[in-house]
Amino acid sequence: MSTITLRNVQYRSRTATAIYDLLNPIPFGMFVATLIFDIIFAKTGNVFWGKGAAWLVSVGLIVAIIPRLINLGHVWFGGRNAVTRIERMDFWVNLLGIVAAIVNVFVHSRDAYAMVPLNVIFSVVTVALLSIGYVALAFEKFGHAEVRHD
Q1: 2 located within any domain
Q2: Which domain holds residue 76?
Q3: What number of other Cβ atoms are within 10 A of residue 107's Cβ?
Q4: Could you report the per-residue pLDDT of 93-123, keeping only the tens digit for each?
Q5: For residues 109 and 74, what is the distance between their CA atoms, to the nearest angstrom?
Q6: pLDDT for 4
Q7: Gap between the Cα atoms of 38 and 49, Å rounded
Q8: pLDDT, tens only, 41-94
Q9: How crowded is residue 131: how many other Cβ atoms within 10 Å of its Cβ?
């Protein structure tokens, strides 16, 4: 029988960690949906998809506020807790992704088809940056695993 023991990460607040884990995936899903809607809008020119993408990126940014503030507190004001380089890199990559999403909101405020192709470009940049953060954290978590054979 094999037992896997993951690195024990001590956070300041279990409540903050629970809220972060609950809310953090929601903006990512909305930004992925924004990318899909933007691609469909670029191909069809149907205003429905452009307006839908504008709403998705806007709501995604609003929902992203709380997890980003919790992450800010964890990474930069963690106090006694050790923060890894990957967690700091994830913070910066997420920050850049959020900045790209903010620019994307302004691109989506353009009239009709004037937002193409910048809407797709900024959606791709946002999703790519957030994906890099998720993948880096997953590899870090997996890299600190110990496998014992009992």
Answers
A1: no
A2: 12-144
A3: 22
A4: 999 999 999 999 999 999 888 999 999 999 9
A5: 34
A6: 42
A7: 7
A8: 999 999 999 999 999 999 999 999 999 999 999 888 876 567 888 999 999 999
A9: 15
- 43 assigned to some structural domain: yes
Give the pair of three-digit tokens for residue 26.
């929601």
Per-residue burial over 66-103, b if 16 or more Cβ lie within 10 Å, else e, is: bbbebbebbbeeeeeeeeeebbebbbebbebbbebbee
pLDDT reported for residue 46: 94
**Distance between CA atoms of 122 and 17, rounded to whole angstroms?**
29
> Do 50 and 115 touch, CB atoms closer than 8 A?
yes
Chain Cα centroid distance, residue 31: 8
